[in-house]
C-alpha cells in the first residue's frame, strides 16, 4: 500500500514550487487513478519483455520474481455455482485478466478447463468429434460472460483472476481555504510501497498534459530522470 496523502502532499509541493500551478483534490484523484492503472498495466508488459530475455541470469530472474510478486497481490480465487443461463457465468466487475478457470465438481476432482477461441467454438458445434465432454471441458469468453462447455455436468466454477486495483481517493475538509486530510474517507493506493515515486511522477506528468502546462510536465520529467539515475547507481 502507498499512502495517498503522502503522494498528494509530494505532488502539491512539486506543483506549487515556483508557483507552477495548483492541483485540486478532484483533479488529483482523476490523475491518481490513471497513474495507478498505468503502473499496474506496465507490470504485464514488463513481465512479458523480461520473460523473453535469453538466459537465466540472477538479475533477470529477480526482476521477474519481483513483478510476479506485485501482480500476485491482486490474485483472486472466485468460486461460484450460480448461473445466468445454463453453464454461463458473469465475470466479476473487478476482473482485469483471467489466469485460469477450474471445474470444481468434476468426477475425478478439480480440473482445469481449456480456453477456446470463437472459431474453435464454431467447429465444436458442427463436429460431433470435437464436441465438449466431461473429460474434455472447455470455456469461451463472450463479452462479460464465461460459457463453460461440458457433457452432462452442471459446472461449479472456480475462476482465478487478477483484479484491478481499487479506486484510490484523497478526501479532505476545506478549512479557511486549506484542504485538510480526512483519513476515514480516503482510500490508499494498492500498489507496492516501492511505486510511491512513480505515482508522484506520473500524476505530475498527467496534470501537466491535462492543464496544458509544459512547466508542470517538465517537473514530472525531471523527477523521472532523477529516479532513473538513482536506479542505475
Word description of this protein:
The protein has six helices and nine strands, in the order H-H-H-E-E-E-E-H-E-E-E-E-E-H-H. The chain is α+β, with helices and mostly antiparallel strands and 233 residues long. It has two domains: 4-72 and 179-232, no CATH class; 76-163, no CATH class. Strand 5 and strand 6 (145-149) form a beta hairpin. The radius of gyration is 23 Å and the shape is elongated. The model has no long low-confidence stretch (mean pLDDT 83).
Identify the notable features of this structure and list them briefly:
233 residues, alpha+beta, 2 domains
Q: In terms of topology, how is this protein built?
A:
Layout: H1 4-16, H2 25-51, H3 58-72, E1 75-80, E2 88-90, E3 95-103, E4 111-115, H4 118-126, E5 138-142, E6 145-149, E7 157-163, E8 172-175, E9 178-181, H5 196-210, H6 214-232
Parallel strand pairs: 4-5
Antiparallel strand pairs: 1-7, 2-6, 3-4, 3-7, 5-6, 8-9
Helix pairs in contact: 1-5, 2-3, 2-5, 5-6
Number of helices, counting only DSSP H or I runs of 4 residues or more: 6
The total tally of domains equals 2
Query: What's the number of extended β-strand segments?
Result: 9
By secondary-structure content and strand pairing, the structural class works out as alpha+beta
Beta-strand percent range:
15-25%
Q: How are the strands of the biggest sheet laid out side by side?
A: 1-7-3-4-5-6-2
Short synopsis of the structure:
The protein has 233 residues and is α+β, with helices and mostly antiparallel strands. It has six helices and nine strands; from the N terminus they run αααββββαβββββαα. It is elongated.
Amino acid at each position: 500500500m502507498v499512502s495517498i496523502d503522502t503522494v498528494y502532499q509530494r505532488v502539491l509541493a512539486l506543483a506549487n514550487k515556483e508557483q507552477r500551478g495548483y492541483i485540486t483534490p478532484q483533479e488529483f484523484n482523476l490523475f491518481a487513478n490513471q497513474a495507478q492503472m498505468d503502473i499496474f498495466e506496465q507490470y504485464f508488459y514488463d513481465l512479458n519483455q523480461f520473460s523473453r530475455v535469453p538466459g537465466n541470469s540472477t538479475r533477470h530472474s529477480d526482476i521477474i520474481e519481483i513483478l510476479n510478486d506485485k501482480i500476485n497481490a491482486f490474485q483472486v480465487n472466485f468460486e461460484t455455482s450460480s448461473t445466468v443461463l445454463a453453464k454461463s457465468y458473469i465475470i466479476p466487475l473487478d476482473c482485469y485478466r483471467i489466469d485460469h478457470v477450474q471445474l470444481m465438481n468434476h468426477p475425478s476432482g478439480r480440473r482445469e478447463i481449456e480456453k477456446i477461441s470463437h472459431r474453435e467454438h464454431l467447429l465444436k458445434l458442427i463436429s460431433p468429434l470435437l464436441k465438449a465432454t466431461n473429460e474434455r471441458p472447455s470455456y469461451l469468453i463472450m463479452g462479460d460472460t464465461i460459457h463453460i462447455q461440458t457433457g452432462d455436468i452442471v459446472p461449479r466454477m472456480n475462476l482465478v483472476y487478477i483484479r484491478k486495483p481499487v479506486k484510490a481517493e484523497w478526501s479532505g475538509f476545506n478549512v479557511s481555504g486549506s484542504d485538510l486530510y480526512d483519513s476515514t474517507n480516503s482510500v490508499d493506493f494498492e500498489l507496492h510501497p516501492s511505486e510511491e515515486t512513480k505515482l508522484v511522477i506520473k500524476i505530475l506528468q498527467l496534470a501537466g498534459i491535462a492543464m496544458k502546462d509544459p512547466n508542470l510536465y517538465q517537473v514530472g520529467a525531471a523527477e523521472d530522470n532523477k529516479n532513473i539515475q538513482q536506479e542505475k547507481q
